[in-house]
Amino acid sequence: MADFIKKLQSIDVKDLKNLDYQKILQDVKKRPDIIISSAVVVMALLISINLVSSHFRESQSLRNDIATLERKLSVVEDYKKVRDEMDAFMAQIPAPMAEQDLINILTDIAVKRRVQIESYTPGRKQGEKLYDLVSIQMNISAREYSDLWLFIYDIEQSELPMRIENWTGSLKSAMGETGSGQSGGAGIFVTLEVAAINIKK
Prior knowledge:
Elements: H1 2-9, H2 21-30, H3 32-92, H4 99-112, E1 116-127, E2 131-142, H5 145-157, E3 162-173, E4 186-199
Antiparallel strand pairs: 1-2, 2-4, 3-4
């Protein structure tokens, strides 16, 4: 083996064209250990290259997967944020009001503002894509304009989902006997349509 290496070292680069490759091949065949050693080195090199390439591909695939997951995570976080905002908004929507609920609330406001409810009449019932509407017609009277306007103000400014759809009013004389036995004076008589707007959740 040492003799073979010395022979290789003694070769001049300029004389590579003059090498007797047949003789070198014969020398190598005489020493199978050289073939085995060379084959082992080549195999080790190929295995190393394959491992490095495989590791690079796996690393690149993992980086791509991470980037994809980050994008999906961003979408999920945006969805959760919008969902939380929607849930908060929906939580602020009052519970639906039935016709009897509307009558009870208007009665309480009327008592508070010294307004007399003369009569109730069922109004419209309307179903839309985003909300349902139920209304009542009511005839009311009051002795003072201020009481009447406070009654209307309380309805319009209420946090409950109701509103005044339309109204008409007139000033009439109330000559009948009052509960105290005294004749009544002039009064304000108003016809209102009050609607409850129930937003669908």
